[in-house]
Design a protein that fits this description.
This protein is mainly beta and 95 residues long. The chain has no helices and eight strands.
């Protein structure tokens, strides 16, 4: 299996699967499914440097996060769909 280590302030996220049914039990067709906006952090970069000072990352591997609808870039590693994005694209950590 290939692995990827994000650089700078980037984060690798495994998106949650899209909803198959509504809460009332209606099955959603593939063409109408919305892109998920939450996922699990898989890997974290070391942080970035600004004005000579290192700014560490606030998220860590295993965190459940919420991110913007158009955040990041979709990539595929060994057949698995992942998202790579800047930490600033993450809206919050779910608890």
């Amino acid at each position: 299996m290939a692995s990827i280590k994000p650089l700078s302030d980037r984060v690798l996220v495994r998106p949650d699967s899209a909803e198959e049914k509504t809460s009332s039990g209606i099955i959603i067709p593939d063409s109408a499914k919305e892109k998920p906006q939450r996922g699990t952090v898989v890997a974290v970069g070391p942080g970035k440097y600004e004005n000579g000072n290192k700014i560490g990352m606030t998220v860590k591997e295993g965190d459940k996060v919420l991110y913007g609808k158009y955040a990041g870039n979709e990539i595929e590693i060994d057949g698995e769909e992942l998202m790579i994005m800047r930490e600033s694209d993450i809206l919050g950590v779910l608890s």
